[in-house]
Task: inverse folding
C-alpha cells in the first residue's frame, strides 16, 4: 500500500491526539481550548479586528463573538475603538490574561515535548521544515472551480479517468 495515500488521515489523527493531550493537561484550567486558541493568537496579533481574528483562528465568526463576549466579561480581552474605522473594533488582551498565556504556553510546551520526545534535534528541525513547506504549498493553491470540484467527487466519470 502507498504510504503517501494516508497523509491526510495521519495529519488529522496526529492533530486529534495532540489536541486531546493538550486538553488532558489543561483539565481544571480556567479556559476552554477555543479560548486558549483565541487568546494565544490574539497575543501575537493585538489590535486585529474580530473578523481578522476569526480568520486567523479559523473560528466561525458567530462562535468567536460568544468566545470574546465571555472573555471580555472575564476581563481577559478588551474591544477597543479602531482609530482607522469607526465601525470596527480592535482587540487587545488585558493584564489579567497574561498569566493565563504563560500557562497556555507551558501546557503547549509540555505537550510538544511529549509528542516529539523520541525525535533527535535534527529530526525535529527537519519535521518542522517539511511541514512548513507542505503548509506553504497548500496556502499557494487557488480554490478549485465548481467544475474542478465536481470532477474530483468520488464516483465522477472525470475523476476515474484522471486517476
Result:
Amino acid at each position: 500500500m502507498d504510504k503517501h495515500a494516508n497523509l491526510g488521515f495521519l495529519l488529522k489523527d496526529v492533530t486529534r491526539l495532540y489536541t486531546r493531550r493538550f486538553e488532558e493537561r489543561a483539565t481544571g484550567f480556567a479556559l476552554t481550548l477555543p479560548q486558549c486558541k483565541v487568546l494565544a493568537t490574539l497575543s501575537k496579533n493585538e489590535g486585529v479586528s474580530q473578523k481578522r481574528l476569526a480568520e486567523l483562528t479559523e473560528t466561525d465568526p458567530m462562535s468567536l463573538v460568544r468566545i470574546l463576549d465571555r472573555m471580555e466579561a472575564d476581563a481577559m480581552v478588551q474591544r477597543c475603538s479602531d482609530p482607522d474605522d469607526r465601525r470596527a473594533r480592535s482587540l487587545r488582551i488585558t493584564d489579567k490574561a497574561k498569566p493565563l498565556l504563560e500557562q497556555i504556553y507551558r501546557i503547549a510546551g509540555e505537550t510538544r515535548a511529549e509528542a516529539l520526545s523520541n525525535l533527535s534535534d535534527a529530526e525535529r528541525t527537519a519535521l518542522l521544515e517539511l511541514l512548513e513547506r507542505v503548509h506553504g504549498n497548500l496556502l499557494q493553491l487557488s480554490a478549485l472551480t465548481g467544475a474542478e470540484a465536481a470532477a474530483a467527487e468520488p464516483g465522477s466519470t472525470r475523476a476515474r479517468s484522471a486517476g
DSSP finds eight helices and two strands in the chain. The longest strand covers residues 85-93. The chain has a mean pLDDT of 89. The CA atoms of residues 148 and 158 lie 9 Å apart.
